[in-house]
Write a structure and sequence with these properties.
The protein folds into 6 domains: 77 residues, Arc Repressor Mutant, subunit A (Orthogonal Bundle), CATH 1.10.10.10; 86 residues, Arc Repressor Mutant, subunit A (Orthogonal Bundle), CATH 1.10.10; 86 residues, no CATH class; 79 residues, no CATH class; 70 residues, Rossmann fold (3-Layer(aba) Sandwich); 141 residues, Mannitol-specific EII, Chain A (3-Layer(aba) Sandwich). It is built from 27 helices and 15 strands. The strands form 4 sheets. Strands 10, 11, 12, 13, 14 and 15 form a 6-stranded mixed β-sheet that branches. A 4-stranded parallel β-sheet has the order 7-6-8-9, covered by helices on one side. A 3-stranded antiparallel β-sheet has the order 1-3-2. Helix 12 packs across helix 13 and helix 18 packs across helix 19.
Length: 643
């Protein structure tokens, strides 16, 4: 397989010795543009591949190939050369070209490069065009004309960043590290998680290759030198001394700071003791408070979990370091986080805005995903905090065995702490059922019941049942509880008087004013609600995703959340946005940190904003009944919905 540092040299060396009787290490190293140490390692690997059919050995400093079994040798040779198909892939060709450019001390002629890669000139030109585009975000350029030679131009820090983020495996898959170096790394970093050790080895490998071939990192920005005050630098500094001793070189401070980056920019340790042993930057706590204040301002959700805050502080510190020093962390769960936790994703956007204002750093999509995972954990734990075990009544009319069968199935769906009591329909009373959180029944109840009732069959669909149980959590908070299979809980908060249709002549401000005035006359919000709403909008926009506005403030007219919807069949211009739907929310005065209904409503609104087809249908609803039909989504219909 052809690779700048990998086993393509094995094929090249074998071909060389098939054509040349003997050569010195210095000749081989110069020909393949690597160190003599690397050639020794390659020859050792090649002899392993040849097994007993042949050997490459030195006599008086000159190496030559000796074949003992011609038939076996030809088979092994074919296998090694056939594996050299690395350049069949355009991406691999780009990696190879980059690897050659990044190590070459003189311009590379394209004709020679094309011959070396065994590709046509047109193919090489196309690959160069793609490579130039890939290098552009890293401020790297390929200069020169195809007839006069090509050179890579850019800062060494940017070159290393590109390598680590894009082509490390292709360039350094087989790069030889001395056993003494590997042992030193493992011994020194044994208190760090495996992922940190793995990342450090990658940084070390790139540093060693670049430094030992004369590509020094040079002067760094002042923020790098501040890292020498961190306790972790002492560890890296000591390790660098060990590695330097093994290789008989001396590393300047800048190379040592480069090695510190995978540690100061690591993922937050999973072990609490490991995390707390790391010194926390003093500026992180004020930054976290700014993030939480802004989230509270924009969503009225209070993030007050002490355990959540402690972990989040360390995550912020490592994230800011990664952004500041360009250490990229890829997030494989990005799409799943955005889909399953829409509100957490929105909170992460608020946090990203605060970080940008505080440090001038743009939070990447990958980092926003990790922020969202923290907020997602908070929201999930928030829903469980302080919740006593479900008290569940099961009413059956077909015998105790059937009742027990239903009970066994329910235990698979409900939390393990749920307490289930069985009742026979002939004997159950309204007074008995009043003390339960949920009532499941296989028959028509013989008595009235003020608690949420879920009608089930003896054998039921577990997914649908989970959704109905989820909706039952909001039974005491919605005006018209509906235990159907509709995913949207917000439907239970709506009524015809809270749905508004606006024409093109009405502005966003006029529409909000009209909605509030109507709600105020109906006694659903107090008279000062509009003034508070406008004062709040002065502190920050309440427009979400350029099409949906979520104006909200506290209302003192009642103790329940009030929701109204206004639609613009023709979008209304507002600042830099086109508003299509207004979700007006009046929050109760005693809004607690564990108000799961508010969190659920935000999730539903954000899911609507992200669904262009559904948003269109809502804006075209010509009456309240049409809106209700539009706002019906079968539970489980949308993958990743929080039901």
């Amino acid at each position: 397989m052809k690779s700048v540092f990998g086993d393509n040299r094995i094929a090249d060396l074998l071909q060389f010795f098939c054509r040349t009787p003997a050569a010195t290490l210095s000749t081989l190293a110069a020909r393949l543009d690597v160190s003599e140490r690397t050639i020794r390692n390659d020859l050792k690997q090649l002899n392993t591949e040849l097994e007993s059919c042949a050997v490459i050995e030195a006599v008086q400093g000159r190496y030559s190939l000796r074949v003992y079994d011609s038939n076996v040798f030809q088979a092994v040779r074919s296998r090694i050369l056939e594996a050299d198909d690395f350049l069949n892939s355009p991406q691999n060709r780009m990696d190879y070209i980059f690897g050659r450019l990044v190590r070459s001390m003189k311009p590379l002629l394209t004709d020679e490069l094309a011959y070396e890669m065994n590709v046509g000139r047109t193919t090489l030109v196309n690959d160069l065009k793609k490579l130039r585009a890939a290098l552009e975000p890293y401020q790297l350029t390929i200069l020169g004309k195809t007839s006069k030679g090509l050179v890579l131009q850019g800062r060494e820090t940017d070159i290393r960043q590109y390598i680590l983020e894009n082509s490390y495996d292709a360039l350094y898959r087989q790069y030889p590290l001395d056993v003494e170096v590997i042992d030193a790394v493992e011994d020194t970093l044994n208190t760090f998680e495996k992922s940190v050790q793995r990342s450090f080895r990658q940084f070390l490998t790139v540093m060693l290759d670049r430094f030992l071939t004369g590509h020094y990192i040079g002067q760094l920005s002042p923020s790098f030198y501040n890292l020498t005050a961190r306790p972790e630098f002492e560890t890296v500094d000591r390790l660098a001394d060990q590695v330097a001793g093994c290789l008989r070189v001396e590393f300047p401070a800048e190379e040592r700071l480069f090695l510190l980056l995978p540690i100061v920019g690591m993922r937050t340790p999973a072990d609490v003791q490991d995390m707390q042993s790391i010194e926390l930057d003093a500026e992180m706590r004020p930054l976290m408070e700014k993030v939480f204040r802004q989230i509270r301002l924009e969503t009225d959700i209070q993030l007050d979990s002490s355990g959540f805050r402690e972990d989040f502080l360390y995550h912020l510190m490592f994230m800011v370091n990664r952004l500041r020093f360009h250490v990229r962390l890829q997030n494989p769960m990005l799409d799943e986080l955005r889909g399953k936790y829409p509100l957490a994703w929105q909170m992460a956007g608020v946090a990203a805005k605060v970080v940008r204002q505080a440090y001038g750093l743009e939070v990447t999509e990958d980092e926003r995903g990790y922020l969202a995972s923290y907020f997602g954990v908070f929201l999930e734990e928030n829903g469980l905090r302080g919740v006593r075990p479900y008290q569940v009544a099961v009413v059956c009319g077909t015998g105790r065995v059937t009742a027990r069968l239903v009970s066994v199935q329910l235990k698979k769906v409900l939390d393990s702490s749920a307490e289930i009591t069985l009742f026979v329909d002939e004997k159950v009373t309204a007074e008995q059922l009043a003390g339960y959180d949920l009532v499941f029944t296989t028959v028509d109840l013989p008595c009235p019941c003020e608690r949420p009732v879920i009608r089930i069959h003896e054998i039921f669909n577990e997914q649908e049942l989970r959704h109905k149980i989820e909706k039952a959590r909001y039974w005491d908070q919605v005006d018209v509880p509906m235990m159907d299979n509709n995913w949207f809980v917000m439907v239970g908060l709506l009524e015809e008087s809270r749905f508004f249709i606006f024409d093109a002549s009405e502005s966003y401000e006029d529409a909000v004013g009209h909605m509030v005035e109507t709600l105020s006359k109906a006694g659903q919000v107090d008279k000062g609600f509009l003034e508070r709403l406008r004062a709040r909008e002065q502190r920050g926009t309440m427009v979400f995703d350029h099409a949906v506005a979520i104006p909200h403030s506290v209302q003192y007219a009642g103790d329940r959340l009030v929701l109204a919807i206004g639609v613009f069949p023709t979008p209304a211009e507002h600042i830099d946005h086109e508003i299509r739907v207004i979700f007006l929310i009046g929050l109760p005065e005693q809004l607690s940190a564990d108000d799961n209904l508010l969190i659920r409503i935000y999730d539903e609104i954000i899911s609507i904003a992200q669904d262009a087809v559904l948003l269109d249908k809502i804006t075209q609803a010509d009456c309240f009944q049409t809106l209700l039909r539009v706002l019906y989504r079968q539970a489980g219909e949308q993958e990743g919905s929080p039901c």
